[in-house]
Amino acid sequence: MLDTRQLEVFATVARTGSFSAAARELHCTQPAVSQQMRALERQVGGPLFVRTGRGLNLTEAGRILAERGTELLDQLAATHQQISAIATHDIGTIRICAFPSANVSLVPFAAAILAEERPQLRLELVEEEPPDSFALLRRGTVDVVISFSYRGEPQDEAAIAGMLRVPLLREPLALLLPVGHRLAGREKVSLAEAQDERWIAGCVRCQGALQQACAEAGFTPDVTCSTDDNLAIQSLVTAGLGVALVPRLLLSFIQHPGLTTVEVDSEAERETALYTWPDLIRLPLMRATVDAMMTAATKA
Q: Which residues form the signal peptide (predicted)?
């Protein structure tokens, strides 16, 4: 049976690349780290590291243990968090991880509902996008993830295995334009009408959605700038450097008076969903949090 403390030390050594760096991070001595690693190597029956100059390389056994041991530690952390919450019948703090536009729209609406209905509840907010947000949930670092996916985008089933998924909303995409643009003021436009425009793209996944939507409209967008900063996208469009295809949630916090939006005649859309662990949903405060998110989604 592998010792979890030894696995934790091993994972740190594998990540930092040396016993001394691991010792500094773990706030212990280098001999203590070496002792733990020798004991682990005796346990598995062979070497896990090969020394290369001043550094360390993993053996094949070490590589497999690093990959699977990290997954095991994440699962143990998540299981411990779930069991602790259920054993005490409730939790006083809900840790929510959401992507940027959800954190400034959905989450505040839900937080206001919870503040009125459950004033004793505390919320801790983290900003991250999938798949990193799913990793936080799996490690037990957060209790709830608000995630998004675009139509036709493949889902990483391994990343969400065992999680409870609660659909929140589907958002059509709109064309973000500077005031005075030739397409401004129209009720609806086709993407093909914007094929000669320069484009401002968002995050990597948002760029994929833009490329797919434009391909379905029969052209390849001329992307002149890309950024995952929503306010930067607004500034770039306002400055006339391009147009952007954005989800509806982004429209809820447009800061520039020089911007306008036009509905797009396209099947492109973004779906937002909540993820948590099935056992956690049994807790009253968690159930209240999910209900608040679902209510907030109807107002977004």
A: none
